[in-house]
Specification:
about 15% strand, four-stranded antiparallel β-sheet, binds magnesium ion, about 200 residues, 11 helices, binds inosine-5'-diphosphate
């Protein structure tokens, strides 16, 4: 039963994380928690590739636009002042353009991480999207103070160090986009017997 909850998720250290030299620290946090790296590479992605990596459906774009809107509400800044519109779909489209340009601007470290409830556990260690809202102890909370109030003012996406799949659908799509079947390695961590051994 427990084995069924062993999942694979996709993680990418973004150009800001690579350029700050904190790839090792990001990885350490996942490894320390009991998660296992099963594929990994350093690549400089093209804009067309990143266009495919991030979703293009209206729902996702609106969700991203809404993240800006909520920070602007908190700060009392009218959305129109920056974007010329209050339509979260249009704002999401603008943010995706910034993202594509940014993530394709330099090398990133792409990896597949495996373990018990890996999708949620990796997100928990990563922290929420806006570093300003991320608790200390999370990667985003420890290494950034960015939020849309700052990022959008400078016409760039949030510099939040790392990407992690948000759910099973994203994880499956992203792993298939970034890796080939034979990129995934099978090996045992020494602590696996502790986590997964049946005591009955
Ligand atoms: P996630 O990375 O936590 O899953 P998503 O909502 O999927 O966050 O957004 C993808 C990426 O888009 C974020 O990691 C961040 O870099 C960028 N982003 C999201 N919302 C905003 C925003 O309001 N302003 C600028 N960039 C944003
Ligand atoms: Mg996401």
């Amino acid at each position: 039963m427990a084995q069924k909850l062993v999942e694979r998720t996709f993680v990418m250290v973004k150009p800001d994380g690579v350029q700050r030299g904190i790839v090792g620290d990001c990885l350490r946090r996942f490894e320390n928690a009991g998660l296992k790296i099963v594929a990994m590479k350093l690549v400089h992605p093209t804009p067309a590739f990143i266009e495919k990596h991030y979703p293009s459906d209206d729902g996702w774009l609106r969700m991203v636009g809404e993240k800006s809107a909520s920070t602007f509400r908190d700060l009392g800044i009218p959305l129109k002042q920056k974007f010329g519109t209050e339509d979260t779909l249009e704002i999401g489209k603008q943010i995706k353009k910034w993202l594509v340009k940014y993530i394709s601007s330099g090398p990133v470290v792409a990896m597949a991480i495996e373990g018990y409830r890996a999708i949620e556990n990796v997100r928990r260690i990563t922290g929420p999207t806006k570093p300003f809202e991320a608790a200390p102890g999370t990667i985003r909370g420890d290494y950034s103070l960015d939020d849309p109030g700052l990022g959008n003012a400078l016409s760039r996406p949030l510099l939040n160090i790392i990407h992690a799949s948000g759910n099973k659908g994203e994880a499956d799509n992203e792993l298939a986009l970034w890796f080939r079947k034979d990129d995934f390695m099978t090996y045992k961590r020494l602590d696996e017997d502790m986590w997964y051994k049946d005591w009955s």
